[in-house]
Design brief:
This protein is of the alpha+beta class. The chain folds into three domains: 117 residues, Longin domain (Beta-Lactamase, 2-Layer Sandwich), CATH 3.30.450.50; 111 residues, Arc Repressor Mutant, subunit A (Orthogonal Bundle), CATH 1.10.10; 118 residues, Winged helix-like DNA-binding domain superfamily/Winged helix DNA-binding domain (Arc Repressor Mutant, subunit A). It has 15 helices and twelve strands. The strands form four sheets. Strands 2-1-5-4-3 form a five-stranded antiparallel sheet, with helices on both faces. Helix 2 runs antiparallel to helix 3, helix 4 crosses helix 10 and helix 14 runs antiparallel to helix 15. The protein starts with a strand and ends in an 18-residue tail after the last helix.
Length: 380
């Protein structure tokens, strides 16, 4: 597990300068900082490097010359630095967002915890971190409209649209490819690589079905079962899905303590003493977690006739990938309007077919049928 996080900047007058670190007692010598700086300078590019300096195992992410910050993750000797690359890349934009406002000290502890658990995150957590990133959402939203765009055009567009900081497009695309949201490919005759949308992201609140179907079996006294059902119905009668609400849910779920609590609440209706047991799993401040879930209208508290409190999910949250069937209409429209070349459209159909079959194979189904195809008479 990582032992510390250091944010460093190069100053022409004084050399390396630490602007933030966690925990406070972490000590990194100027000599070590200079070695990190020199190694990045040798490559001359933004991105991650790993190096051993004495007994220190370091993964360092450079934001590039525009901002000039170095984010050092200090690891144990047996840790694999490559396992933290995605976490460092995601954290770098958060760090730059807050460092300009002199509020990084308020964020660095939580960022350290997020990066530390990154290699152990499940698919839902990794997707939550991916979709919370503003630049990645911008790319997904554009591809929802167009399906495919050239990499060079995407770079120019992002620089124009994203004014808040630097854009390491290669690192961003690598993460989206890992999550199977996009695919990058070359097509003969195109001046740049093409970026295709292969899976879309769906975010929506859902009723906690396993709980409301048998609340007594999940820990709620039978006398409170009707009250529970009433509260869930009341919530979903007024619920209207929105990106703003989804992002609020994703933000709190990206807090490791909140997520660990949600994992328990998805399986049972619990008491405060049950929740206190989560301290063994890193949930140090149960009251703070409950406040976040209450403010997000995710939990409801019920009391029995002995004044015992029971904490139950009011709404769960669904975050997953879906195959973008709607893209066939986009492809058809592009063909009819001749807004994209036939070669690009044919390649996109192949990419979608591969994505579809891969998704089916991942569900352990022997899928040999092909996608429903669009009958286009494409001229060679």
């Amino acid at each position: 597990m990582p032992v510390g996080l250091v944010v460093m900047k190069w100053d022409e007058r004084v050399g390396t300068e630490i602007t933030a670190k966690y925990p406070d007692e972490i000590n990194v010598t100027d000599k070590t900082l200079m070695q990190v700086y020199s190694t990045h300078e040798y490559s001359g590019e933004s991105g991650m490097i790993s190096l051993m300096v004495g007994s220190l195992n370091i993964a360092s992410y450079y934001t590039g010359p525009d901002k000039g910050y170095y984010i050092l993750l200090l690891l144990n000797l047996d840790d694999d630095p490559d396992a933290y690359e995605g976490g460092l890349a995601d954290a770098s934009r958060v760090i730059l967002q807050y460092i300009d406002n002199d509020t990084i000290e308020d964020q660095i502890a939580n960022l350290f915890r997020r990066i530390s658990v990154y290699p152990t995150l499940n698919n839902e957590q990794q997707l939550a971190i991916t979709y919370q990133d503003e630049i990645k959402r911008m790319i997904v939203n554009r591809l929802r409209e167009e399906g495919v765009v050239t990499k060079s055009e995407l770079m120019v567009w992002l620089k124009d649209k994203y004014k808040a900081g630097f854009v390491d497009l290669d690192a961003i695309l690598i993460e989206l490819i890992k999550r199977e949201i996009i695919k990058e490919a070359s097509v003969k005759g195109m001046p740049s690589e093409l970026i295709f949308l292969t899976n879309d992201v769906v975010t929506i609140r859902t009723p906690p079905l396993s709980l409301i179907e048998a609340p007594a079996e999940k820990g709620l006294p039978t006398a409170l079962a009707d009250d529970y059902m009433t509260e869930v119905k009341k919530f979903f009668q007024s619920y209207r899905p929105s990106e703003e609400d989804s992002l609020k849910m994703i933000e709190i779920l990206n807090d490791p303590q909140v997520y660990e609590t949600m994992r328990l609440l998805r399986t049972a209706i619990v008491t405060k003493s049950d929740l206190e047991k989560l301290k063994k799993k890193g949930v140090d401040d149960v009251d703070d977690v409950l406040k976040k879930l209450w403010d997000a209208k995710t939990i409801q508290v019920f009391r029995d006739d002995k004044n015992n409190e029971y904490y139950a999910l009011l709404s769960d949250f669904y975050l997953n990938l879906i195959f973008p069937k709607y893209m066939f209409s986009v492809i058809k429209k592009d063909y009819e309007q001749k807004s994209k070349s036939n070669q690009v459209l044919v390649e996109y159909l192949k990419v979608l077919e591969d994505a579809y079959l891969t998704k089916k194979a991942g569900k352990k189904k022997a899928v040999k049928r092909k996608l429903p195809t669009i009958r286009l008479k494409l001229k060679k």
